[in-house]
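Two entries, shown back to back:
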Amino acid sequence: MNVMRKSDHTDRPTQDRWLDVDEVRLVSDLRIMHSKVDELYQIVANLKRRHSGADIRKYADHPVLNEDIARVDEIYLWFVKLKEQHAKNEDIRA
């Protein structure tokens, strides 16, 4: 998997130039991620609205539910890390 590093693209603002292929791929991946996060949020909101936590646990495939929870925890921690990096960068600029 190729990782786009800051040194792989120009520091010029993106509104002053065309995006390169890796940047277009990144924007595309981010849009897909936003869509999937919203989709997951809507599914969970509907489950919570329609069913009790007890019923969800009763009817869940427990190994799969545990794996889902671990995956969501991993994603959550990644988002927290991004948020902290952004806050740190904002503090440096201030």
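entry 2 starts here
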Amino acid sequence: MSQTTSQPNMSQTTEVLNPEDIYDDMPELEKINETTKYLMEEREKYNAKLKIWKTREEEQEADKKTCLQLQHLFHMAMLMGTLPYLKTKEKMMNYLNRSGDPDWTAGYIWSLADSNKIDWVKGYGDPTPYEKYKKDMNQALAKYLHPE
């Protein structure tokens, strides 16, 4: 007993399609192109906003680090009794640049103090509420470093 199997002819041809052949209606193709262009523009806007957001976040992190360093420096100046002698812009910036970061500018430190971002160490026996103390100390620092 013998079996025979027949297989159908499986030959296929590959056809390259032209967009004009697929879309008989050219306005539909134009609409797709416009949509693609719009989506690319929106993507560029989103990426620009993302870059701004990341830059702003990095600046905020740098400000936090600077404020912590300033808190430490001012605490040390209080403990050593030198803070009352730093009552000019030049003396204050010499101290901050020498003991902290030489790249700090008076304008930068002033902006941190003016926006009340710098935390201050308050004496244990001082009855002044902390927020008032912090605001007063930042205002005093801002007064010395105010841009001319």
